[in-house]
Amino acid sequence: MEPAVLETENLVKVYGRGANRFDALKGLTLDIKRGESVAVIGKSGSGKSTLMHLMALLDRPSQGVVALNGRPVSELKNKEIHKLRNESFGFVFQQFFLNPNQTVLENVVLPLKIAGLSKRERNRRGLEALELLEMADKAKNKATDLSGGQKQRACIARALVTNPSVIFADEPTGNLDSKTSEVVENILFGLQRDRGITLVIVTHDDDLAAKCDRQIYLKDGLIVAPEQSNTARSEAASSGEPAPSGQEATEPWAGGGSTASRASELGKEGNR
Ligand SMILES: Nc1ncnc2c1ncn2[C@@H]1O[C@H](COP(=O)(O)OP(=O)(O)O)[C@@H](O)[C@H]1O
Ligand SMILES: [Mg+2]
Q: InterPro entries given for it (predicted)?
């Protein structure tokens, strides 16, 4: 049995306080083995992104433990956490979070800039990642000039450029048509197969979830059995309505909320 790359124990996350208190995660214990692909599935608001942010060390839990390679992260200083996150993890978000004023290559090499590599080495590795994604010819284009699928491939190149052990993908195909989604999914699972990269994929999409080695179903901040999770498909099936899409955008803090602000925090690190 492969060792756990990530473990959580009794993970609790509370947002706000007093009358505004919201218990987003209510005690989650799980582990993710090296090299496996895990889908975190559940309807909008169930706590998927919150769990991902805690496991990816983008946020700290209110209670409980996150351990990376057997070591509890709470023992580490902020600076060490930033370094570890930058070295060990790659991120792919639904909203892409590419800097529109920069070229594709500049966007892709951002994690290497944070890590302090020389420009020459950054560009060499950035181009290598873009080649792998069949995007080398777009290296000098502005990020805004890309199609949705190309943007997501640029994001995957950025996620790969540090040679991470884990890629976290939050609704990676949420903004893509079904054909482009399939291309992006194949790339992600190819990285798992060929490079042994662990995949943690947050999704509404039952089909994408089914392609992962294992599924973790969330409901109201707790891990539940699949039939209790009320995912998009089971709701749609019971109500006879089509599965909802783009639900995240209707959440009150969408755009300025946790994912967006965390990603802009990542961007800020690059400007130091
Ligand atoms: N920064 C925040 N402040 C207050 N509430 C939040 C914040 N982030 C998430 N929430 C709330 O926590 C719950 C879980 O959110 P999230 O983890 O984003 O769910 P999911 O990704 O499954 O849609 C939601 O009800 C959401 O409104
Ligand atoms: Mg989410």
A: AAA+_ATPase, ABC_transporter-like_ATP-bd, ABC_transporter-like_CS, ABC_transpr_LolD-like, MacB-like_ATP-bd, P-loop_NTPase
